[in-house]
Amino acid sequence: MLGGQIRLLHREETILNKRVFIAVCMVCLIFTGIGQSQEFTEQVTGQVSDSIDIRQSTQKSEDVWFEHKAEMTAEFDTLTRETAQLAALNKKLQKKTAAEQAAVDELKREIDEIDRMTTELLPFLNETRSRLEAMVESSLPFLLVERRTRLKNLSRIMDDTNIAVTEKFRKVMEALSIEAEYGNTVEIYQKKISVGNKNILADIFRLGRLSLFFQSLDQKETGYFNPLTSRWHLLPHRYNRDIGSAFEIGAKRRSADLLNLPLGRIKPQ
Length: 269
Known about the structure:
Elements: H1 2-138, H2 144-159, H3 165-181, E1 186-195, E2 198-207, E3 211-216, E4 222-226, E5 231-234, H4 240-250
Antiparallel strand pairs: 1-2, 2-3, 3-4, 4-5
Helix pairs in contact: 1-2, 1-3, 2-3
């Protein structure tokens, strides 16, 4: 047992000696490096300072870059929105331009159609005017001054190249309408006429465009206009009553009634 204790003490002594040796070595190293520590510290401090400066400069550069990047990103987003808006506006303008072009094309088509109609319409209007003039001269002789004056003005309009075809068409249709309306009306007026060998002042009764009757102012003689001979003729006295009634109805002095009037033969117009 004692031997074991001696070996244990020897081991502990050996360990202690090693620890002391290590400590002595460390002290020696410390005292040996004291002379060089100031220079090393300055070198390390300089390198650290340089590293800090580089890091600060790098950080500033990074800050500037990120700020510039943010500005560029915002500008890019703005340009993207403006580009989209311009594209939408351009599309809208293209549609508007297409619609306007379609309207122009339609207008040109209408103008061409009007030119074509004008070329075809003018001969028709001139022919209609000529037929109106012939009809007035060959029909019953009522309101001749008014009707001839109207046709004279119509001829002046038709011969004027500065007047539009639409206006010429309107005037021709107006003259036709007036002539047609005469067929739906009755009229009473006074006029000097030639009956046989006498010229008398008589009351004239116009029955549409069918017949003209006269009655002497003393109501003793009645007659009619014969379009085949273009002359006035006396009627038998048995017609005096019906002719007199026709004058009263035409003058609205009595209500309408059925009358026996001698229309005779009607001249084609």
